[in-house]
Amino acid sequence: MTATLCEITEQAWLERGEAPDREALFFVTTLCGTCQLAEKMLNIARASGPCIPVSKLNINYAQKLREEWRISSVPCLIVLEDGRPVRQEYAMRSVVDLRDWLKI
Asked: Which of 60, 24, 61, 59 is nearest to 42 (CA)?
């Protein structure tokens, strides 16, 4: 199975160099049980084949992105193209859905 998601800070994400064409950010909080379940599903989806890069951010420390993208709750998976959100999902209904959203 694929390694767990790489956690990144908002500052590190904003200051990084060249971004991939497509990527995803997964917003969570530490004690959120639903977030933990969604992360397990996400790891299974990632292990099932090639997918876009996914980074995890703690929403409590991501004020700028939270406000700019109007993230209202966690877990929240945002798929980006050229650094701009194109899909924002709060309900991780199935591994199959996640796989479709993240496939290359």
From this structure: 24
Structure tokens at 24: 């995803």
Indicate the helix (H) or strand (E) that contains 66: helix 63-68
- 71/6 Cα distance (integer angstroms): 20
pLDDT at 19: 77
Instruction: Give pLDDT tens digits for 25-59.
Output: 999 999 999 999 999 999 999 999 899 999 999 99
Q: Rounded distance, CA 27 to CA 25, Å? A: 6
Q: Which of 20, 103, 13 is nearest to 58 (CA)?
A: 13
CA angle 96, 101, 104 (to 5 degrees): 105
- Bridge partners, 57 (sequence order): 27
What is the structure's pLDDT at 3?
A: 62
Alpha-carbon distance of 103 to 96, in angstroms, equals: 10
Q: Is the peptide bond before 75 cis (omega within 30 degrees of 0)?
A: yes
